[in-house]
Design a protein that fits this description.
The protein is an alpha/beta fold. 45% of the residues lie in helices and 16% in strands. It contains 12 helices and 12 strands. Strands 1-12-9-8-5-4-3-2 form an 8-stranded parallel beta sheet. Helix 4 runs parallel beside helix 6, helix 6 packs across helix 7 and helix 8 runs parallel beside helix 9. The longest helix is centred in the middle third of the chain and has 17 residues. The radius of gyration is 17 Å and the shape is globular. 52% of the residues are buried. It binds zinc ion.
């Protein structure tokens, strides 16, 4: 597999979309640990990866979002941490082959670092290091540290990735709109500080995913701010399928594939180099977006 950063310098790339909702559609029970399927229903997980690969995605994200030993403890699965992460990377690798990159997915560990919480940076670094080591063993080409709110957690995760070898590390924050053209993470960190700290920590690609109640014009403004704050570092953006609507007790993302396809040229024009999807996106959305990215190449 040739170098991700070299490829990215030559052309924009397309990342994949949501995994959890795809597994739920395949019969995963709400509250069940989706990561268990990496080992016990691998054909289901590979089926989702295959659909995204066929949609034209260059980057395939492992099904390991809540894969730290800290998060797996909620499901009584600490003892299987390495196995489930390794299997997650192997599933993605099997589908990606040598024609796409595998991103080993790391989500927030699920609590606060000191002083807000009890976790020390040193403890968390070891927790992330163990997860990343298993992802690398399973064949991940790069590490994706995503849906982050706390730049300190990003710094710890990037440091942990560096302990596991010379892999590109991609970091993305979840921003919410806090004012006119102003975005902050749940922890209150603005775009500039969030990205500067990720770049200073050594992230190779930086940006945003998910986000609370951002409409497409907001994502466009966010993209401009991300590119400005990232300097020379390539930027990734993985929007949700529009701003969610609350229907009953559910958040429903309603943007159609055609609506998401329509925003791609403007996003690329801001300088964003990798476009993917987050909540509410499906292989159909990514196929439409991929068409648009390819038309802009
Ligand atoms: Zn999301």
């Amino acid at each position: 597999m040739n170098d991700l950063l070299t490829a990215l310098a030559a052309r924009p790339l397309i990342c994949d979309g949501a995994m959890g909702t795809q597994l739920l559609a395949k019969g995963l029970a709400g509250g069940e640990c989706g990561m268990l399927w990496n080992a016990e229903r691998p054909e289901m997980v590979r089926g989702v990866h295959e659909a995204y690969r066929q949609a034209g995605c260059d980057l395939i994200t492992t099904n390991t979002f809540s894969g730290t030993s800290f998060a797996l403890a909620r499901h009584g699965l600490v003892a299987r941490m390495a196995e489930l992460n390794r299997a997650g990377a192997q599933n993605a690798r099997q589908v990606a082959g040598e024609s796409a990159w595998v991103l080993g997915d790391i989500g927030p560990f699920g609590d606060f670092l000191e002083p807000l919480g009890d976790m020390t940076a040193e403890e968390l670094r070891e927790i992330f290091r163990q997860q990343i080591a298993a992802l690398v063993e399973g064949g991940a080409d790069a590490v994706l540290v995503e849906t982050m709110s706390d730049p300190a957690e990003v710094e710890v995760a990037v440091a942990a990735a560096k302990e596991c070898g010379d892999l590109p590390t991609i970091t993305t924050y979840a921003f919410q709109k806090t004012g006119d053209a102003e975005f902050r993470t749940m922890m209150g960190t603005g775009v500039e500080e969030a990205l500067e700290r990720a770049v200073a920590a050594g992230a190779s690609i930086v940006g945003a995913n998910c986000g609370t109640a951002l409409a497409f014009p907001d994502y466009l403004e966010l993209a401009r701010q991300l590119v400005r704050a990232a300097g020379k570092t390539p930027v990734i953006l993985q929007p949700n399928a529009g701003s969610p609507q609350v229907i009953g007790e559910q958040m429903v993302y309603c943007a159609t594939p055609a609506e998401m396809e329509a925003i791609v040229p403007a996003l690329l024009q801001t300088g964003v180099r990798i476009i993917g999807g987050c909540c509410g996106t499906s292989p159909a959305h990514l196929a439409a977006m991929s068409r648009s990215v390819n038309a802009c190449r």
